[in-house]
Amino acid sequence: MGRRSKYEFPFNDLTGKTPVAPEHVCDKEGCNKPAEFRAPKDRTLSDYYWFCLEHVQEYNAQWDYYAGMTSDEIEEHLKQDVCWQRPTWKLGERGFDPAMFADPFDMKEQIFGSAKEENFKADKIPASDPVIAAAAKVLELDFPLQLEEVRTNYKRLAKTYHPDSHGGSKELEERFKDITEAYRLIMSVLNARKE
């Protein structure tokens, strides 16, 4: 004996109450079964048919979302699906809007400090280390050390004391070696602090 639907009995066996009439009846012509499943009428997905299980399976097997569309339209639709059907534009196409970076709660200042502070990125080294202090003196730098200032001073001093620019003086050659070693030391510390 086959299993019966709850709608075939005058009351529900589990609750003892008379079942409520189904909200929808199957939209398939000639079918009076309760409709529990909805299926879209077209690709706008705004209007639906209501079917019983048997007829919704039949409808779904035949339904084609892309029916009536050309291959170019299908291709464009699939391309828009990548971004959830929302408009997109190329980088920089919309221009710069300073309002995007507005800071109404002054959070930038709380997190990064005053805007007047230069280079807040961890390229400042305290003068407490005597080796770094000596290297800074060789490169004619003041604390806090800034990456750009270190590079600029090194280039200027290296050009001045390079052996090719002074005719082979041993004293100036030693000074060039000191400048190079000081630069290497300070840059290694600055790079280590950035990581």
Tell me the layout of helices and strands.
Blueprint: E1 37-40, E2 48-51, H1 53-62, H2 71-81, H3 107-112, H4 130-138, H5 147-161, H6 163-166, H7 170-194
Antiparallel strand pairs: 1-2
Helix pairs in contact: 4-7, 5-7
Properties at a glance:
mainly alpha, 2 domains, two-stranded antiparallel ribbon
Describe the model:
- Helix 4 crosses helix 7 and helix 5 runs antiparallel to helix 7.
- The radius of gyration is 39 Å and the shape is rod-shaped.
- The longest helix is centred in the last third of the chain and has 25 residues, at 170-194.
- Helices cover 41% and strands 4% of the residues.
- Strands 1-2 form a two-stranded antiparallel sheet.
- The chain folds into two domains: 1-87, no CATH class; 130-194, Helix Hairpins, CATH 1.10.287.110.
- A hairpin with a 7-residue loop joins strand 1 (37-40) and strand 2.
- The chain has 195 residues and is mainly α.
- The protein has helices spanning 53-62, 71-81, 107-112, 130-138, 147-161, 163-166, 170-194; strands at residues 37-40, 48-51.
- It is built from seven helices and two strands, in the order ββααααααα.
